Amino acid sequence: MSNAETMPSHALGYRSPNGCSKQVMTQITPDEQHQLDEIAKHENRSRSAMVRLLMLRGIEQYDAARAE
Fold it and tell me: Alpha carbon 59 to chain centroid distance?
């Protein structure tokens, strides 16, 4: 096994969580960007990390609503 296979991703300099390899592009308004930046700052996260977290929470809520 190589070091890349045994070392955690943060030790290799990768910034994305394990398994994240796809990008998604979207358009937002300046107000939405400001809100997002404020939330990210409050959570001490990058804008991208905050978008991913909010997306995952949204998917959870969507799945829960569909299951009802």
Answer: 12
DSSP letters, 28-67, are --HHHHHHHHHHHHHHT--HHHHHHHHHHHHHHHHHHHHH
Tell me which fold the domain 21-67 belongs to: Arc Repressor Mutant (1.10.1220)
- Token pair belonging to 61: 């809520």
CA-nearest of 62, 64, 27 to 51 is: 27
HSE-up (13 A, CA, CB side) for residue 44: 0
Q: What Cα–Cα distance (Å) separates residue 66 from each residue in 9, 53, 57?
A: 34, 20, 14
Tell me the pLDDT of the chain (68 aa) as tens digits. Answer: 444 455 454 554 556 778 888 999 999 999 999 999 999 999 999 999 999 999 999 999 999 999 99
